[in-house]
């Protein structure tokens, strides 16, 4: 034991159990047997320096100051040994069983996670709202107390420190969601924090992101404070982009943050502008991106998630850098899944590119379910997970064209520019004017030779968006996608109604196919849209948003029948696609598809839906 540490311990004159001392530039020292002054059971003494690499030898005495502006902080802390809680006793003295931890997992539930059978979970007269309301809550993001003792690399106000804390309590699970089934989360590593702590521009980006997240969780629109801060941040980025030394990775990362932030607050014009700039930058700096990692993750999040929000084509090419995590599935299962998807979609006349995209989604979802059901035995590489996730979603958005008509793109939400803000000097950074944001009705679906293709693609994008947790979501949620879905489905319903009664196998010159061929896929698509619309109303943080679900219910009534009893007459084949891409992952609970369909139809009959 070093002399300084021994002297510090000897001077304490208190029980020696669990002493943690941080020594500047010192390596970790473990002792087999330390001072044992107390009469309690010996717990050991360890001296740990969390700043120095392992193997460094201390050459300096620790400072007596408990904090140092802009430098390290040396903390001497006594901590009590962790005690195993004893079972509490009831009034009769009988020990009671301790409650299990209520901390929720960041992993989607699978059928094997539930012990309650569907017969026990739902009564025969359950409403759709009752069934959906039983959904397991969204995974909680770990939110520890604000760091009071951490040393930052730059002067930070208390408000700035809090926003950095908000960032680190949310972003790891947003950038690498479902980390319970990943080998590790790159955004939770010490190197991730140190990289941010070394660069002032990235730290400003982190603080701005924390402001947006904090505002969303409080149910508040962007304030004048955020407006001014982001405007100055934009000015810093502009100066970096105008420099003659080229564009650094840190600057690219900050532009990604600007694009993501623009999408988050509904400024779609700003998102398009940032993505055009990123496309030019990445064309020039492509070699700097080949190592993948967090920067590539952020680029794809800005590109693919933004494109999904507005139903447009991604701006950036998707260069694959990692193997599919779905390769962990046995080859026989992969082949069977691909064959099952093709058997459902080919009779509806969908193009091979669309079938391949949906097959990729089915394999990816099957992999997540398998990893979740393994209880930690199967872990996925985080970079491969991210690569395949965004690859699957980008393919659904790209082929065979945009989902939204380019002549009617989603318009930015109304903004209110604060008087006297530095926008004129630094660039635009809007604030939201109102809390209630209805779905943007100005968007129109892109034309398609086979109208069933956009229905399947939109349902697939909605499915993967709802499947993977993202808290908080963008200000406008699923509004654009659901608006496109309702209009596309409305067109399909109009064509079907012209046929009169259920047409059976009769052919009509309306661009559609036989009812029997369409039924499995269309029931799944309508059910996904109905459930996502319901979820969207409950996930919004910014106020009350109401999505129209009647068109999806009418779709189900047409393909199933007007009475709840008609559900029992459906063949297993009619619900086969609901088995391939089931709704249990969206609702994070055990779910019987027939029960849910009966409840939706029953609500319609009772005038509840």
Q: Can you walk me through this structure?
A:
The chain has about 600 residues and is an all-alpha fold. It folds into 3 domains: about 1-80, no CATH class; about 155-320 and about 380-435, no CATH class; about 440-609, no CATH class. Helix content is about 45%, strand content about 0%. It is built from 21 helices and 4 strands. It has helices at about 5-10, 120, 130-135, 160-175, 190-195, 200-215, 225-240, 250-265, 270-285, 295-310, 330-345, 350-375, 380-400, 425, 450-465, 480-495, 515-540, 550-560, 575-580, 585, 595-605, and strands at about 20, 30, 45, 75-80. Strands 2-3-1-4 form a 4-stranded mixed beta sheet, with no helix packed on it. The chain is globular and about 70 Å long. The N and C termini lie far apart (about 70 Å).
Describe the structure concisely for a colleague.
The chain is mostly helical and 609 residues long. The chain has 21 helices and four strands.
Q: How would you summarize the topology of this molecule?
A:
Blueprint: H1 3-10, E1 19-21, E2 29-30, E3 46-47, E4 76-78, H2 118-121, H3 128-133, H4 158-175, H5 190-197, H6 200-217, H7 224-241, H8 249-264, H9 268-284, H10 293-310, H11 331-345, H12 352-373, H13 382-398, H14 423-426, H15 452-467, H16 479-497, H17 515-539, H18 550-560, H19 576-580, H20 584-587, H21 593-605
Parallel strand pairs: 1-3
Antiparallel strand pairs: 1-4, 2-3
Helix pairs in contact: 4-6, 6-7, 6-8, 7-8, 8-9, 8-10, 9-10, 10-13, 11-12, 12-13, 15-16, 15-17, 16-18, 17-18
